[in-house]
Amino acid sequence: LGKFIPPDERVLLIEDTSEIHLAQDNLVRLEARQPQNGLPAVTIRDLLKASLRHRPDRIILGEIRGGEAFDLLQLLNTGHSGSLSTVHATSARQGLARFTSCVLQSGVDLPYRAIKTNVGDSVNVVVHLERRPGRRFVSEVVEIHGYDPDRDEYNYSFIFDSYKEPL
Length: 167
Description:
Layout: E1 11-15, E2 27-31, H1 44-50, E3 58-61, H2 68-76, E4 84-85, H3 92-104, H4 112-122, E5 125-132, E6 135-148, E7 153-161
Parallel strand pairs: 1-2, 1-3, 3-4
Antiparallel strand pairs: 5-6, 6-7
Helix pairs in contact: 1-2, 2-3, 3-4
């Protein structure tokens, strides 16, 4: 997906460990670190909170694992469309559930449905990859249209479903 980012856009890449390789001219790479030589730790959450100072057009977070999901959600709500991240899940729908669970791990004092509403308003597309022996492939692409608190469901439509449309 990084190959489709226009070359004139400023991209901020935040990772725990440098793993993502982007050929982007205007790339700012930030990496978390453990405490060392008397210097304090710098967490993913610290980097996300400081990211707006770099005036990015897009923010890429290597992986959502916990409470940093809330900070990313806040950034998505500030208009950084086209931002990307990854989360481990068994399907696109489970990816949304996992993202929501990670937001809750931040300790934020928001009702569960308010968090889901924010996720539904901020996340536009979920691409799910599966790994089979010897390869990875796109299994689902889902467009998110918001969250319905009355039904406690995300409104979404499949753009692609490999179980219905084999590659």
